Amino acid sequence: MNAALPSLPLLHAVRVPRAALIDTSGFAFDRDGYAPADLTLDESGQVAALRPAAAAPAGDWIAFPPLVEPHTHIDKAFLRARAPNPEHDFQGARAAIERDRAGGWTPTDARERMERALRLAYGHGVVALRTHIDSQPDRLQPCWEVFAQLRHDWAGRITLQAVASLGSSKLVGAHGDRLGELCARNGALLGPVFYADAELTANVERAFDLAERYQLDLDVHIDEDNRGRADGLRAVLDRLDRQPFRGRVNLSHLCSLSRCEANEIDLLARRAAEHGLSVIGLPIANLHLQDRDRGDTPYWRGVTPINALTRADVDVALGGDNSQDMFVPWGALDPLAVLRDGMLAAHLDEPLGDAVARVSTVAGSIIGLGDCGRIRAGASADLTLFRSHDPFAALSGDYSERLTVRGGLVVARRSVDIA
Ligand SMILES: [Zn+2]
Q1: 211, HSE (Cβ side, Cα atoms, 13 Å)
Q2: 3-class SS of residue 188
Q3: Which of 34, 230, 275, 322 has its CA 20 to 30 A from that of 88?
Q4: What's the CA-to-centroid distance between 132 and ligand 1, angstroms?
């Protein structure tokens, strides 16, 4: 739907989170980091002005800023039922994707699923999205071609980025160079998956060399298990100690860091900050996949130690990871659901009005879109609005309406009417 906002007065005394503001002076924030603001839009759908509310009390609308999904896998989305993983673990997921791909994916199949993911993300207020795309030697197509089409078709609605994802040992020889060229051609990143095995150091070296050769940034899956103790992070830090790297490096997952002693976590986090590394935590995937060894209720939570990384000044965003596939059966490309679950899983006890940065400004900055995620005069009015009495209530599903606003128009609406 594309209807005008129900009425502009709803934007008087709307509660906005601190993370969405460039200039916080004059705003009266509550303990949740929210302040009432008067938000006016112009006829072109841009924010004309954003000021501290002239009149108390706060109205009954709560605003969230433009949202960023920094780590997902839209190429595999929605395969859960078609390619089931009865074991619910990594091995089962890998076997399931092998079986499904053995039949070959058509461009139509890939496009339908990838576009459905983008429609969901758009409806949930996402303005920028980074997806990993499986890029083993026999799997470059049809997804890279479809991705290029989608990036063109969705320009102006969602800024799309891609990461070439594959086991780091597969970067050897001609395929590594082929992938380097493909990434450079598509403005994509290199995304090796590092495993804590005997080849780890060599694989890290190879990946950095390749990225350097083709002038690529890196966004790697790393330490996503309980086998080592941040072995991948240590290998990356050692490499950066030996030799500076020109590009940006993001580490996705980093679960086994939480198996180290507290002082060791702090030390590694400080080294990561010194090298300018960023981290994307993926709490829903981690809660689902980690600590399945015993086949029982998990003992180890398995999530990224986000608080320690943040204390050391490492930028940490939250991502949704896989959506309704053989790896993770959950997820609907909704960063606010990821934020809620991430705060719960990782005990992010910071004010919600600051934590929202992890799915807006910080996520945007990590993926190189530093101007993303603010509500500011002169920018497109891209908001998620809840009619709710409290931001925690809103993210708990206790609201009567949720509106996604893009360029001042309501593009998605969800109403709840409990008599
Ligand atoms: Zn992932």
Answers
A1: 26
A2: coil
A3: 230
A4: 7
DSSP 244: -
Tell me if the bond preceding 283 is cis, omega within 30° of 0: no
**Whether the model pTM is above 0.90:** yes
C-alpha 253 – ligand 1 centre gap (Å): 8
Domain 3-64+374-415 annotated CATH 3.30.565.10: no
Work out whether the CA dihedral 336, 259, 168, 216 comes out positive or negative: positive
Average pLDDT over residues 88-98: 96
pLDDT of residue 10: 55
> Which SS3 state, helix, strand or coil, does residue 177 take?
helix
Q: Could you please report the per-residue DSSP string of 11-33?
A: GTTEEEEGGG-S--TT----TTS
φ, ψ of residue 348 to 5 degrees: the values are: -85, 90
Task: Decide if 233 contacts 271 (C-beta within 8 A).
Answer: no
Return all residues near 175 (Cβ < 8 A) that are at least 6 apart. 137
Q: How far is the CA of 268 from the centre of ligand 1 (A)?
A: 22
224 is catalytic: yes
Q: How far is the CA of 194 from the centre of ligand 1 (A)?
A: 12
46, 376 contact by CB (below 8 A): no
Q: Which pLDDT score, from 0 to 100, does residue 85 have?
A: 97
Start-to-end CA distance of the chain, whole Å, equals: 26
Residue 353 has pLDDT above 60, yes or no: yes
Q: Which of 43, 87, 224, 350 is catalytic?
A: 224
| Helices 107-123 + 143-153 axis angle, to 10 | 40
